[in-house]
Write a structure and sequence with these properties.
Elements (H helix, E strand, L loop, with lengths): L9 H14 L7 H20 L7 H11 L4 H8 L3 H8 L7 H11 L3 H5 L1
C-alpha cells in the first residue's frame, strides 16, 4: 500500500493532483474509492490554506452576472423598472439595494441569496 503524507508544498500538491486523476472514477467503498476520499481531503485542506477564494460582494456578484448575461445598466434598469442612474448608483456603492431589488437579483438573475445578504 502506498504511503499517504500531508501536502507541504506545491510539488506535493501537484503529485496528489496527478494521483487523484488515476483514481478519479473509483467506486465508493473500494480501496481506490477510499484513496480518492483521503486525497480529496488533503487537497481541500491545502487549498483552503493556500488558494482560498473570497466570496463576492453583492455588487461584484451583480457586475459578474450582468457581464455573463450581456446586460447593460440600461437593460437592467428597463427590466427592473428603475432609472439607469439608480442602477449606476447601486453599482458604484452610492445607493443601497432594496429588498425588492435583492429578490429580483436572486429570482431573475440567479444570484445566490447568501451572496446578496452576505
Amino acid at each position: 500500500m502506498e504511503m499517504i503524507k500531508p501536502i507541504k508544498n506545491e510539488q506535493d500538491y501537484d503529485l496528489v493532483l496527478k494521483k487523484m486523476e488515476t483514481v478519479f472514477h473509483a467506486k465508493p467503498n473500494t480501496a481506490e474509492g477510499d484513496l480518492l476520499e483521503v486525497l480529496s481531503m488533503l487537497l481541500h485542506e491545502y487549498e483552503q490554506k493556500h488558494y482560498k477564494i473570497e466570496a463576492l460582494t453583492p455588487i461584484e456578484a451583480l457586475k459578474y452576472e450582468m457581464e455573463e448575461q450581456g446586460l447593460t445598466q440600461n437593460s437592467l434598469a428597463q427590466r427592473f423598472g428603475m432609472s439607469k442612474s439608480s442602477i449606476s448608483e447601486i453599482l458604484n456603492g452610492k445607493k443601497q439595494m432594496s429588498v425588492r431589488f435583492l429578490k429580483y437579483l436572486h429570482n431573475n438573475l440567479g444570484i445566490p441569496a447568501n451572496v446578496l445578504l452576505g
